[in-house]
Specification:
Length: 396
């Protein structure tokens, strides 16, 4: 009965990780999947999360169901994190808890499809799951060039052209900060242009915010584009993840926010979001949401979280600077300053597919197939090894 099914390929990033796991070389290095690692290479528990867990362990919360829009005390914390206290208090946000950022994207696509928005425009290169996820629910997709390999910057002309020429009811999936995989973020002026172009157009903006705080070190600053669109009285959606900025990868804590300007419509939109979640997941999961809500609603822990995130951003800036300094010292052929121009965890190195394959097979350094390097995987102990390998593959 099941023998008609055909095998499906692994996600390319997961395939790279599997190769890494199978490599017996003791000096192998993982700079593939987007997970933050501490300066000593160990996996990192945010001090704020540790504090929240201590509270959690003292106050027995029980194991009852939450609600179908999630853990009630999680919702305002999720809203305040993205929108700030003022906007969160204005009553224009329909929010549900979701199965992290991916679950949020899925719920966003469902509610947008219900509202008639069935084409998803994705700038390339992009996070590998957007297109399959939209197609999975029967929506169409279109692509446009986001990043220019030559200049190693955003091809903003192409972004503008895609918006101007978009068919009605197109959804633009835009990453708010720390673009995955390119590390190239839109400037404030570019966001202004995008707002001007979309404000009176029959299209929709979906903000994907999976790394809030990792670009500037300040969560409020990184959420600026979202608040800026809100100020113009626009309706749009935000997909929020706490996987990265609280290090809660496995807990699957996230939220979907829909900005609804008409107060009468808001409960209707919310009821649709809850229905969608109910039919697929029923009740929201409790554990990660409890940690998030404890961090966000306990002032002294919230301050620690601010410092945690600032520390991550600072370490990424330092490592990027050191990569550039080391390559400069090695006189590695080519221009490498994009490493310090890009933000967040990812450096889109520009190594070709063949060079990337050599990094893996000859030097046991596992970057993703598109040449993306997780900067957080580099540290004092392996930075030189990484740069020397890169230098060698570029030279020959
Ligand atoms: N969006 C982007 C740009 C990502 O890089 C990721 C993955 O890390 C996600 C969304 C989804 O993340 P998660 O489902 O782990 O919260
Ligand atoms: O791009 C990354 O590394 C993260 C984690 O199918 C990830 O976004 C990787 C692959 C995938 C889902 C998430």
């Amino acid at each position: 009965k099941f023998s008609k099914l055909e095998a499906e390929a692994l996600d390319p990033i997961i395939a790279t990780m599997a190769r890494y796991a199978a490599d017996p070389n003791p000096n192998k290095m993982d700079v593939s999947i987007g997970v933050y690692k501490a300066a000593d290479g160990s996996s990192f528990m945010f001090p704020s999360v540790k504090m929240a867990k201590e509270i959690y362990n003292k106050v027995e919360p029980g194991h009852n169901y939450t609600t179908m829009s999630g853990l009630p005390e999680f919702i305002p914390v999720a809203q305040q994190t993205v929108f700030g206290d003022k906007i969160a208090g204005e009553g224009k946000l329909a929010t549900i808890q979701t199965i992290s950022g991916t679950g949020s994207l899925h719920m966003a696509m469902l509610i947008l499809r219900s509202a008639g928005y069935t084409n998803f425009a994705v700038g390339t290169p992009a996070w590998s799951n957007y297109i399959p996820m939209a197609q999975h629910i029967g929506c169409t997709t279109s692509t446009y060039k986001y990043y220019d390999e030559e200049t190693k910057t955003i091809d903003f002309e192409s972004v503008v052209c895609a918006i101007e020429e978009a068919s009605p009811k197109t959804v633009f999936i835009l990453q708010t900060c720390c673009h995955n995989p390119t590390g190239a973020d839109l400037s404030k002026n570019q966001w202004k242009t995008i707002r001007d172009l979309t404000i009176n157009k029959d299209c929709m903006v979906l903000f994907d915010i999976a790394y809030q705080g990792f670009a500037s070190g300040d969560k409020d600053e990184d959420a600026w584009p979202i608040r800026y669109f809100y100020e113009a009285g626009m309706e749009f959606v935000v997909c929020q993840s706490f996987s990265k900025n609280l290090g809660l990868y496995g807990e699957r804590a996230g939220a979907l926010h829909v900005v609804v300007q008409d107060k009468d419509s808001l409960p209707i939109v919310h009821s649709n979001m809850v229905k969608n979640f109910r039919e697929e997941c029923s009740f929201g999961p409790a554990y990660g949401a409890r940690i998030v809500s404890t961090v966000g609603s306990t002032p002294e822990i919230k301050k620690v979280w601010d410092q945690d995130v600032a520390g991550v951003a600072e370490r990424m800036v330092t490592m990027r600077r050191r990569i550039l300094d080391t390559l400069t010292k090695l006189e590695t052929p080519g221009k490498w300053d994009h490493v310090i121009r890009q933000t967040g965890l990812f450096w889109f190195s520009g190594l070709t597919k063949e060079q990337t394959e050599r990094m893996i097979s000859e030097y046991h350094i596992y970057l993703t197939q598109n040449g993306r390097v997780n900067v957080a995987g580099l540290n004092d102990a392996n930075l030189d090894q990484f740069c020397k390998a890169l230098d060698a593959v570029v030279r020959s």
